Amino acid sequence: MAEKILVMGLGNTLLTDDGIGPHVIAALGQVSAKRNTAQVALIDGGTLGLSLLPEIEAATALIVVDAASFGGAPGEVRVFDEAAMDAQLGAAKTSAHALALADLIGAATLSGCLPARRALVGIAPKSVSWGLEPSPEVAASIPLACEKIEGIIGRWEA
Q: How far apart are CA 25 and CA 83, in angstroms?
């Protein structure tokens, strides 16, 4: 089976920092012409929840980028691999799509299609109030989040 890495950005872009996942996906698409190939798919998953299960079923590896509460300073980027991702998703939910992501991963596990190689690139939010742009601290983390994702892809492709 050919390698297919799914990079999925989650979040509600109407709620400032909550929408950071789609903002990172947009930035990745701009900085790397080799993305969105047969090997790497970039998807703005927004707040689609369980309707994203077919995308995960078609992937051999999964990277999710999302706002995440892990006690970090606003804009801090942290990578959670495999079991650490599962543990982070088991923590307290701060948004409807955080719950949906945990449900999505649970459904993929139950159906036997959860990729063994998976990572969550979490970005600590400052605000999830109404607004179309992330806070300055979180917006400044987009290049680092892109670097982390590119690093994971490079490690998995090697």
A: 23
Give the β-pairing of 77-81 and 40-46. unpaired
Model confidence pTM above 0.85: yes
- The range of the structural domain enclosing residue 42 comes to 5-157
pLDDT digits 0-9 by tens, 105-117? 989 999 999 999 9
Q: Structurally, how many domains does the chain consist of?
A: 1
User: To 5 degrees, how large is the angle CA 113–CA 42–CA 152?
Assistant: 75
Q: What is the CATH number of the domain that holds 109?
A: 3.40.50.1450
**Predicted confidence (pLDDT) per residue in 19-65, tens digit:** 999 999 999 988 765 555 669 999 999 988 889 999 999 999 999 99
In the sheet where 40-46 sits, what is the strand order?
40-46, 5-10, 61-67, 117-123, 77-81
